[in-house]
Amino acid sequence: MKAVSAVLLIVVAVRGSVHSVVLPPPAGTEVLEITSGDTLLVLCAGSVWVLTPVRRAYDNMIPGGRPAGVGVDSIAYRVDDPGQERTLIPSPGVFYLASDLPATFPNDTFFLVEPPYIAFPGTIVQVAVRADDTYIGYLMELINTPFVMTPRLTPEGRHQSDARLGTDCAGLAVYGRRRMGHQVQYLGPSGIVRYLDDLGNGMLAPRLVSGIELYTDSSGAPMPVGEGGLLPGDILHFQVQVSVFYGDCGSIGLLDPDDLVIQSWFDGPHICTIRDNGFFPRPLSVHRWRE
User: Fold this and answer.
1) Closest among 129, 101, 112 to 66, alpha carbons compared
2) pLDDT, tens only, 95-132
């Protein structure tokens, strides 16, 4: 792999607020949180690298890990050269800027147990890009991080989701609330119910109503979407899985399998239809975060 030497590298489109990153980073500046569209100026007199996590399913309970040891899986990271003439416009998510990398990394992909900025202090900055300051906007910070089963803490004592190392389904849902300043514990799908209010009349299941597949309760009443019904940011609870309602894209005004959710499953946080989320056609319940 090839490095780029530059004194000033613009890596985000020039609009919004302006942020500066100095590489190597002074103590206390290893994490930067920005909004999509902000301008990021990277000040570095040496080499600059961009690191991104490799999205796939990891499991901290894999015996021996990959290759870290019992109870801790290792996350893969890809190393890219941003190029001297190239302007990067990152989508919401997490990436890392490095001023130098250890010579022990012979390939363009390497494995780390801890977040890169913790593994190599004074070398790497984590950049977290949110879509906006809404609940879903904060969820989008984790959109390109991997799915990690069996949550754990980093050496700093931070939950893996707070450290943006990776997240599971309930961890993603809780992360957005915590980023908004709410005191919500990281719990599993059954545990977070204590923070939620019910919206629907019990369990909902997909049924044909006048030839259209809709989610209805046991009486056959469909679940409304929009004012007076389900809204973006509400929780769809599949008992073993938690998804966040993202948008009404099927039968407008009613909950159906073609509506969109944001969830962490398969290889990490992503947006998909309910039909393609891996838990269709299981019954679900609908909830809203309690204020």
Assistant:
1) 112
2) 999 887 766 555 688 889 899 999 888 889 999 999 99
Contacts of 226 (CB under 8 A, 6+ apart): 248, 253
pTM of the model: 0.89
Rounded Cα distance, 159 and 155, in Å: 10
CA 157 vs. chain centroid, Å, equals 19
DSSP string, 134-190: SHHHHHGGGTTSPEEES--B-TTS-BTTTTTS-B-HHHHHHHHHHHTT-------TT
pLDDT of residue 90: 65
Output Rg (C-alpha) for the chain, integer angstroms.
21
Give SS3 for 195. Answer: helix
User: Range with the lowest mean pLDDT among 100-109, 142-151, 156-165, 256-265?
Assistant: 100-109
d(CA 248, CA 255): 7
Strand partners of residue 268: 265
For the chain, the first-to-last Cα distance in angstroms comes to 49
> How far apart (Å, rounded) are the C-alpha atoms in residues 271 and 256?
16
Could you say which DSSP state residue 193 is in?
A: G
How many residues would you count in the chain? 291
